[in-house]
Design goal:
single chain, about 160 residues, mainly alpha, Butyryl-CoA Dehydrogenase, subunit A, domain 3, two-stranded antiparallel ribbon, two-stranded antiparallel sheet, 5 helices
Amino acid sequence: MLRGGYGGVVIHSVSALFGLILGLVGASLDFYSGYQLIAGSAQSSALPSGVGMPAVQYVNSGLPWGAGVAALGVLVASTSVASVSVFGAAHMRAFGALMVVYGLLMVLVGFAMGGLASAMGPESLSGFGMLLVGGLMAINGFMMLREATYAPAAMY
């Protein structure tokens, strides 16, 4: 068990440390994917809007998906940081279950973004990244659940 001096951070297992790294990578991937979905929903209009600048219109379907993926990134980042705290060490089973759920959500979003498409555009690459990181997060969450099952009830 490694103890940090700031804010009661405790790295209580290898899977918790791996979960922190995967969570931060997954959250940054969620933020990037959300940005891509929102930016991809913007379309330039052919009609000028007053001063000769084209008007930018947003396709409605990309905005909620982009905001939802970015919100998933916030949840994944906050959960992964909280999982290595003293509170996370005491509730590793709950954090493992959340990692499994978030990982499966990332896999679903990765499929929806076309992660297995043959085109190598930025959307398909980030979709493939979400498939990979989401799958690893789900596996790591199952490992955290397993460790929490066999760990003693009181760690301190």
